[in-house]
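PT: before anyone asks, these are the final sequences, not the draft ones from last week. 917 residues across everything. Please model them as a single complex and drop the result in this thread when it's through.
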Amino acid sequence: MKHLNIERRRPKIGVFDFTGCEGCELQLANKEDSLGAFLSAIEVVSFREVSSDNGSDYNVALVDGAISRPDEVERLKEIRQRAELLVAMGSCACFGGVNRLKNAYDLDEANREVYGDCPKQTMPTMSVKEVVPVDLEIPGCPVCKDEVERVVQHLVWDLPLPTYAYPLCLECKQRYTVCRFEFGELCLGPITRAGCNAPCPAGGLGCWGCRGPAEAPNYDEFFALTAERGFDRQIVRERMGFFGGFDHVLAELEKQEQHEAIHDDHA
Amino acid sequence: MTQSLSFRPYDVRQEHEMNEPLDFNRWAQLKPVAKVFKAMITNVIRLTEMEKLFHLRIIDDTERERFSFLPGQFVMIEVPGYGEVPITVCSSTSNKGFIEVCVRKVGTVTSVLHRAGRGAKVGIRGPFGTHFPLERMKGHSILLIAGGLGLAPLRAPIFYVTENRSEFKDVHILYGTKSPDQELFDYQYESWRRIDGVDIRIIVEKPDERWKGPVGLITELLDDVTVDPNETYAIVCGPPVMFKFVCQRLNQMGIPMDRMFVSLERRMHCGMGKCCRCNVGSTYTCTDGPVFDYWTVMNLKEAI
Amino acid sequence: MLFKILPKEEFRALVEMILEANEVIAPKAIATNARGERIHQFLPIRSFEEMDLEYKSTEYSAKTYFLPYRENLCTFEFEGEDWQQSIQYYIQPRAIIGLRAHDINALLKLDKVFIRDRFPSPYYISRRKNTFIVGLDHIPEEDEFSRSMGTHIVTHGFDLFLTDLSDRYFVAINSDRAFSLLQKVKTRDVADADTHAYLEVRRRIRDGFKTHIEVHSLPNVLDLEFTSKVWTKWGEKCLNCGSCAAVCPTCYCYGVTEEVTMDFKKATKVKQLYSCNLVDFARVAGGHDFRSDKEARLKYRYYHQYRGFLEDYGEPKCVGCNRCGRVCLAGIKPAAVIKDLYEESV
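LR: through. Structure below.
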């Protein structure tokens, strides 16, 4: 940075967790070889996992977890007001994540199932961007530390933001991974955003789409090719619904089908 | 029972080995493709809100002496850590010691370049690509037509023409921008007009209160220009939609399409005809272009 | 070119000899697919047994050993207000055993781009020249069409090329290093019976092709059918995943990005093989996209394969291995697309 005669910024970062497992926050403390440099590039003002500081003069807020309680909505709005830049981190924050599965059930029933006799105040799970405007998203379950580093580098030095417009398949190919469909398994790779370096297919598990959709995925063809390979429509949709990244597509699809069903009835 | 035998390593760094045949009848030569010349930003001139002009001086004396380019050629400018961008050299070819590049702030690399100050060191690869065939144009009238940022790639040919003014007949510079505040190099128009005897006309789409010149599209400037179509060459730089209309108009005026030259812009990652990012149909913008005659461009699929 | 007969047990000795001192890449069975067939890939082997020369085809080509999917082009080290660039070319010699004729022809095409073009690539040349190539004939798979592309026979670009004559190999020797290596094992001269047997195999290979495409008028048809509905039909299917280009033995397009360490002391320029089917391939800074729809991108790839490359290098880029057709989840197969185009143009 010095070589360009540009002053570097040192963003004050606050990390905030909502409904989630905090695995993404643990990822932040991961990758020991560069952790020192990572933490010295930024100023951590508030971060429960690595520091007892609890300041409120942050200008960048990293938010992980989904929003599932009324008090979380208030807290998030407050954070949004203080932060110049808000980054949604992880599939829960970006899409609602696994927590969103709750939305398919009756709220009280879900509450009883989880908390038994001591029910908690709850509401349908939302992603961060459904509550407040989000500036940047880092999807993934958990997030990839490399990508978080790239985002921080963008904030500190204006380095280009990582953009992964293409689907996961390319990263499988780079790793010499045999396509999971070859083994007769389902994989959301062809529609899911790359950037995680495809560890799941390499480890023998078809993609579950935790990073959400790639840019302009070909859903029609994806549904056709999974059907052609004998995957039950419901199973494909359930897989797509798991992390919430494809919810808007599924909702659109259902609307369309309802419309068609009505149409058929009339016919 | 087996004998050990390891292959003799082939060391690419030793240049003479590159002349060895890969197999029968085949040979190759090595050029350092990824090596950049280190250059210092010696001056930064703010042209408009979006564009800045950079003076770059290659630091190594020998490399600086050796570096030469032709009007219309581009260089890859490397900002270490950030990436590389292709930029057309917009200074005079007779300029020794430094080159000028006009950079519009559009992406991350150009944005960080805009923030870089004097004394900053960047890398240069090149020059790459084809050039405007100005030698061939000598003895003819010349139309130099630019729209918007197109004046930057046109500047090197303008310098060439003005520096060799006696070898050309009538020279017209026609320049159109959206608004007067987007004009590039406005401090040079007077000298081109008065010292070099060039007819220079400027038109804007949206005038401000101080604007006294014509208002409209660049093609309207051609209404008042009379040239002998058999004795005229044209160089047209600007966005594709602009040069398409201009070239069609010039063709109606009777100028053959292979006497009009345009410069194409594409995404580039190598500049050497390898990465395929700049391909138009089967043509590499970086090695077969960026300068094409209009007949060729017309025949390139998806060029315009 | 010299020809010799190499008994199979001697071939084994030869491979073991190479293995002792060099990295060896060979087809290796790594798994069984849903249909019960073995899946092979070109991977490093440690023993002769790990190699499976009975393989039918590999999911990926061996391209990555010449054009790695990811490769560091250079590094910049920052020191205060200055930086230094350093470039490293890979130079460790190795051998690849079992490449098909079409795969070697694919390398010859890449040679045209990376060695014999205006800007030879030292990265490629280093890998190419440091790779000892042992080719191997095969009876074609049903979907291969390398005979149409004229790539089922290879006459150079390798060190050794083997044709299996059941108990022995008919060997073509094409380099001095291969010749010296063969001195270390027992070979014998080619007898008439060997030549007959060899020609018989060549006939079986030639007649083994079941898929054909018409190549000679293809550039013309592609020009005529530039706006054909065929592109819409197949373009609609394309997933834009880039798998076809990734497994293709000749696709070489790439993107370059820089990776900076967290302390900003070092930046690495990384080259990553890309694909013209990926959604942002032709997008420029500022957002304009020169090929913004699926159809245009798919069409562009076919044009480069069968027309553009031909214009630049005098031959099509495709070698007819059909790896792209097999890997494509949407079932886009070059033979089918081209057949459609021909039907459209009549």
